[in-house]
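Long-time lurker, first post. I've been practising inverse folding by hand and with some scripts of my own, and I keep getting stuck on stretches where the structure tokens seem ambiguous. Below is the full token string for one chain I'm working on. Before anyone asks, I'm not after the true native sequence, just a reasonable design that respects the backbone. If someone could post their per-position residues I'd love to compare against what I wrote down in my notebook.
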């Protein structure tokens, strides 16, 4: 996140300009600088005076909110990496992730506190817990004018209204953390019933502004990789952040006149990176923790939003909302970024019709960062899962022997650039030093990046075209050995890509299962483009499945919802829990009818 020296620079140039908006809370750059300085001072009091043996790290479990933005900026100022954790993961995986990160500070909102408690268990840990939620006497109620601003439609402030957030004082500290005289407890006093020290966020804001902050502890940024048999954490040195920031500004044309809506959780690396970039150039940040289509439409209009990072699920809800075409008529919204591995033709076409030519499909992962981008114009003529390497990134395709393949030859994708990780926190990744100069036949994304460079070799299979665009064609790993069949895996990936390009479907997924009730089969849920158009979807899907994968029976089923994670991955387990019982019942009914007819 942005450091305090950058915040103070903007506060000096535009002290009353808006920096962060969260519901009725509106921070000017002056307010933001004040809050970050106080918060950094409060955290400094909790840090050991001598450099500890283990690195000082922080983690957070929270949706986008102004308190989190302040804490992230305070951690960045102190050189403490603050890593976001997905609250949708199971308790056991979260516990293993915490063991791997070994944080000194845990930031948590009230709704995720039970999950954190379950993951931490009863074992003793040396960590400081920072609850984000305000004291009980000043609840954070949506739509309430808690900070003295004029609330407008949907509980939002009227455009241009300025709502100050007064710094917390000892008198406003939570009663649970105050002594009989109403003063906050001394630093490090254990919270009643817990084993770790607690310092509420609003208590941190009660600190006096420091005359001088300590030097940053260390320079690294961490990100948790979703999925896989065990937790993995990527590591990047902060030295590459400057180049990555410049590339993003050049790519999207961000400047201080932008208003950026964060409609994806900040634990997603791309969401946090874009928020940091927009704040660095002086743009305003609007935070949404609801994903509600009506609220998003109102925010885009009321705050004059120009750019947004939105998770796929929220984007789908936004596009079917009757008022989603309003931002296009105003004409200020110019850039909508969303993970695009599983988004298809309906999303692309509907976004163009309702929002205008603004949708950018990002191909991203914690390892590669923002690797590829499909612009609104390119998405009209290019297949799904295709992207142009972003500025500063070079992509090549490697053969079975590690050789660089020419355009048109499929193989494993490898990436180099400032967005790419340095390695894993616990474990090794595959890197190769390659020469992408003239005569190699490599499809270098950017000519100036030719030469000898260190590439991260991924598990993604793909092909480069002569224009430097790459298309994902499958995965080289991540499939259980019991069902691994490269030919079938490639056919399934091509099948799903074909289905994403069908205009008669709003959304679909292809999942291979091996269950007692269904056997070795494909489960193909889909959402029709409209009520009454399910028959067209059934016919198109069955035909495509029979053509691409005739050896595996396919069970096609119409659904109302396909669950996505904020990173754009389909939540397969959740999807199967919803559809497999229905498919099993339908199969049993068909067998019963067949037996009655035969009898």
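-- Answer (accepted) --
I ran through it position by position. Result:
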């Amino acid at each position: 996140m942005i450091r305090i020296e950058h915040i103070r620079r903007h506060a000096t140039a535009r002290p009353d300009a808006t920096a962060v908006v969260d519901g009725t809370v509106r921070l000017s750059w002056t307010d933001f600088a004040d809050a970050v300085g106080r918060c950094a001072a409060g955290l400094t009091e909790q840090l050991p005076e001598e450099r500890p043996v283990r690195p000082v790290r922080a983690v957070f479990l929270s949706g986008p909110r102004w308190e989190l933005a302040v804490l992230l900026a305070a951690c960045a100022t102190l050189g403490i990496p603050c890593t976001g954790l997905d609250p949708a993961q199971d308790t056991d995986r979260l516990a293993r992730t915490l063991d791997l990160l070994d944080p000194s500070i845990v930031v948590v909102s009230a709704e995720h506190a039970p999950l954190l408690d379950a993951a931490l268990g009863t074992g003793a840990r040396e960590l400081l817990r920072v609850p984000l939620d305000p004291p009980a006497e000043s609840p954070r109620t949506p739509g309430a004018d808690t900070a003295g601003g004029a609330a407008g439609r949907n509980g939002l402030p009227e455009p241009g209204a300025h709502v100050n957030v007064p710094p917390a004082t000892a008198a406003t500290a939570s009663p649970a953390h105050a002594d009989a005289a109403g003063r906050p407890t001394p630093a490090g006093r254990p919270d009643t019933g817990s084993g770790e020290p607690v310092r509420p966020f609003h208590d941190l804001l009660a600190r006096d502004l420091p005359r001088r902050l300590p030097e940053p502890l260390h320079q690294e940024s961490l990100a948790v990789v979703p999925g896989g048999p065990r937790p993995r954490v990527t590591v990047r040195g902060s030295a590459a952040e400057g180049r990555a920031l410049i590339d993003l500004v050049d790519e999207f044309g961000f400047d201080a006149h932008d208003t950026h809506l964060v409609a994806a959780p900040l634990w997603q690396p791309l969401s946090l990176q874009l928020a940091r970039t927009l704040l660095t150039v002086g743009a305003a940040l609007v935070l949404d923790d609801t994903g509600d289509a009506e609220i998003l439409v109102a925010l885009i209009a009321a705050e004059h939003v120009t750019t947004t990072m939105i998770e796929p699920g929220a984007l789908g809800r936004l596009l079917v909302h009757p008022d989603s075409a309003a931002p296009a008529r105003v004409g200020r919204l110019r850039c909508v970024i969303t993970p695009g591995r599983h988004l298809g033709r309906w999303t692309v076409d509907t976004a163009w019709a309702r929002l205008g030519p603004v949708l950018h499909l990002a191909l991203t992962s914690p390892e590669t960062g923002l690797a590829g981008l499909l612009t609104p114009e390119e998405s009209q003529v290019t297949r799904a899962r295709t992207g142009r390497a972003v500025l500063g990134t070079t992509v090549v395709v490697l053969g079975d022997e590690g050789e660089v393949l020419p355009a048109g030859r499929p193989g494993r994708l490898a990436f180099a650039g400032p967005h790419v990780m340095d390695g894993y926190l616990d474990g090794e990744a595959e890197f190769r030093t390659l020469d992408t100069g003239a005569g190699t036949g490599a499809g270098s994304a950017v000519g100036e990046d030719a030469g000898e460079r260190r590439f991260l070799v991924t598990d993604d299979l793909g092909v480069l075209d002569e224009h430097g665009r790459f298309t994902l064609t499958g995965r080289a790993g991540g499939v259980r050995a019991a069902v691994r069949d490269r030919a079938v895996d490639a056919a399934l990936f091509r099948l799903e890509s074909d289905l994403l390009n069908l205009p008669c479907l709003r959304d679909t997924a292809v999942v291979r299962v091996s269950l007692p009730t269904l056997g070795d089969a494909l489960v193909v849920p889909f959402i029709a483009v409209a009520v009454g158009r399910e028959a067209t979807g059934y016919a198109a899907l069955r035909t495509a499945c029979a053509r691409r994968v005739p050896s595996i029976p396919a069970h096609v089923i119409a659904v109302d919802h396909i669950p996505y994670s904020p990173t754009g991955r389909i939540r397969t387990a959740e999807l199967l829990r919803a559809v497999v019982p229905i498919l099993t019942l339908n199969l049993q009914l068909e067998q019963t009818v067949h037996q009655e007819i035969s009898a």
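A couple of notes from the structure itself: The two ends are 70 Å apart (CA to CA). The first strand starts at residue 18 and ends at 22. Happy to go over any region you disagree with.
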